[in-house]
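Q: Could you write out the predicted structure for this multi-component system? I'm mainly interested in how the pieces pack against one another.
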Amino acid sequence: MDFTLKIWRQENRKAKGRFETYKISNISPDCSFLEMLDILNESLVDKLSHPICFDHDCREGICGMCGLYINGHPHGPDSAVTTCQLHMRKFSDGETITIEPWRAKPFPIIRDLIVDRTALDKIIQEGGYVSATTGGVPDGNAILISKHKADEAMDSASCIGCGACVAACKNASAMLFVSAKVSQLALLPQGKPEAAIRVQNMVAKMDDLGFGNCTNTYACEAECPKQIKRSNIARMNREFICAKVASEESTKR
Amino acid sequence: MNTLDSKIPEGQLSEKWTKYKASQKLVNPANKRKLDVIVVGTGLAGSSAAASLGALGFNVKIFCISDSPRRAHSIAAQGGINAAKNYQNDGDSVDRLFYDTIKGGDYRAREANVYRLAEVSNSIIDQCVAQGVPFARDYSGMLDNRSFGGAQVSRTFYAKGQTGQQLLLGAYSALSKEIKAGTVEMYERREMMDLVVVDGRARGIITRNLQNGEIERWGAHAVVIATGGYGNVYFLSTNAMNCNGSAAVQCYHKGAFFANPCFVQIHPTCIPVKGDYQSKLTLMSESLRNDGRIWVPKKIEDAVAIREGKLKPTEITEEDRDYYLERRYPAFGNLVPRDIASRAAKERCDAGYGVAPSGYGVYLDFKTAIERLGRDKVEARYGNLFQMYEKIVDVDPYENPMMIYPAVHYTMGGLWVDYELQTTIPGLFATGEANFSDHGANRLGASALMQGLADGYFVLPYTMQNYLSDQIYESKVSTETEEFVVAEKSVKEKLEKIMAIKGEKTVDTLQRELGHIMWEYVGMGRNAQNLQKAIPMLEDLKKEFWSNVRVTGDLTSLNPELEKAVRLADHIELSQIIAKDALQREESCGGHYREEFVTEEGEAKRNDQDFMFVGVWEYKGKDQEPVMHKEDLKYEFINVQQRNYK
Ligand SMILES: Cc1cc2nc3c(=O)[nH]c(=O)nc-3n(C[C@H](O)[C@H](O)[C@H](O)COP(=O)(O)OP(=O)(O)OC[C@H]3O[C@@H](n4cnc5c(N)ncnc54)[C@H](O)[C@@H]3O)c2cc1C
Ligand code: FES
């Protein structure tokens, strides 16, 4: 297959970026999207130019490192896959493909298609955990958890932290990401004791870092490669309101 | 040799660890705050160690290559984690997990280390549950288990097909808590480039900031290497793209010994190679062998017809299928250990029964399971793996058997460590896949996650204190000393040298050549003749790298080509000791299969008389032959037997 690629190039955070056009031919339909970029990069190195920088690691859809904005969609046209799992058979021969980095204020561009997503780690650091230190914990079966609850928590916990939800949202909101973690821990008995403070701190940090508000368009859910559901956002909103009310009541007392 | 003191505590096997903990030296809280620890790597091993050491009160700095600690390769582990809980009441115990691990490792691991691993395994599960890891549960609300290869009990805990992800996110959450508390400082997009040794002790590291190319110095009272395995020397493997053995090689060059480099695990169930554009191989979890049955056609003409696309696997009747694992190993069937399953697949394909277009592929079939359990149950167990398979191969595995073939997956070899997980350099510790300690010549499924977390949560926090207790009189490590200056300078010179070559071959081209040599001559079936060929080929490749590699871009900005080149240079060196180690080990054991040493039935033939030792390599300098030392393995508590899974 042959393609015309329009790819965003930008030397560093401060440099001005631009699209550059590349032609690539003889690509197998079984080639993955990133392997197609590998082939392009080898040809660029052959021509002594700087290869296109993009993030990737596991190449099997689990680490959350890859993330390209392809033809207007985070992770491209296929559903429920990350960029590394996307294959060229999903495109038509001769197609022009536009490739951009995630665009969101809290994700500054580092180079070409690589952005800085440490803002997501910073939100987790505000409380996306159970404060259990190593040792002194009860037996794993001491607290029973219904299969249904465990499965639901697992679904929320499947988030890979790639940031596609932020890139998909016109407001650059991180609600889906934050709510997935809040939900996972709110569903499990181990997460309950800190649930109220967790949701408040994480939401405050999210706002603080410049992520936008959720205006309920749910582009995030549509583009999430792990099919994290919008119901997480609803649960987080409930958790947040309950936490607010509880903390107001406790200050009154 | 006194340099190889494994420091195994005296006493009964079951009492060693308890006794060690009771008599080791501790550091009081006020002094902990004065001690700095560097951890390199944020996989299960590194994150769990950093979080635990931080919680104890040490000042920890942790480094990783990727943009977030949560990306480490551990995230990709699918199947599960072992523990001796015996929740199923099927006869499991610490002793049995210990025994299975030693036997699975083909009697080439240290008894005391493995026993400790089995002993702390149960605490890992408790710890993870407390962190909110959503392990699978049954309808009673109890933790669920599945079986893995090499075991006759159900002791594997899992979280869908994403166990590594959930365990790593658990460790990452513990790490995040410590980062917030200020006990751990996180440095992402930093690659360790060298170890700094001062007066014979590990005192710090040199890193490259991958965003801007800056070379940085970091000092500490102790350094932990948790940088994972080196399977990527084979180019195509199930490892993530950033997995590399470079940090381990840096330590080897600075005096840390490297143990059993030739013990490499080939995993039987991976998606076969498709084309030369391929960048990595995808694993299909071992858990699939619980319900999937492995077969090839009985008749060679059927295999040929399939390869030519004239026949479909679903058209082959039961009588014409050869379920070769069930046939050869009735007791364990499809659940034989990985090395055995891999070789059996290779044997069938070499004999002409392979079903992939290349001839290198066998079937993993869920037909019987779907009939027995129903599609829904199969989907609940393996849904995400089936989806992954379909996305890659474009074939629906509910309707057609999967096609699989062995691929490089895990490295049992690694930095030599003693019982305290300390290398031959005082103050330098190694943990997780980066060390060699627990899996002998073959690792059982679901035991790597167990080992990484055992080391990080429950072993290092004790054993490192024993070392650090002597360090309380040392002030902060200055990075202005001669040793740091020299180390930084040599890193800079190395990078400049690579950039200056401006040769003809891209890093990827050379990397593929390395992978080819390693797979063809130092791969699944090894023999003296091929190994002797590989050694000069690797020497030539090294020369070619240093005279003909082409790296574009510059030193002072983000430059993935340069990153790959640095790792490749180290991988070539590592490959040389892999080949040498494979050549000296004149026996077949675990993942190391020497075609000259087999039983009449074609099974691996160990030689306990001459090779019951750890092969430990010492670097002797550039252009010098490395020297191998032996750590003899003594089995005091286990009765050494020929492995038998029949
Ligand atoms: C596909 C797959 C599935 C698996 N499934 C299972 C399973 O089901 N059960 C099981 O028990 N095991 C499984 N394994 C094995 C297991 O996942 C690994 O052995 C284990 O996760 C290794 O953990 P680690 O912490 O030692 O290293 P890793 O997780 O590999 O982490 C290494 C870390 O070191 C960093 N690093 C490396 N070099 C440098 C450097 N120079 N400077 C700075 N940082 C560096 C990396 O950024 C990373 O953070 C699987 C492996 C694969 C490949
Ligand atoms: S590279 Fe890991 S999710 Fe794509």
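A: Regarding packing and overall arrangement: Chain A has two domains: 3-111, 118-252.
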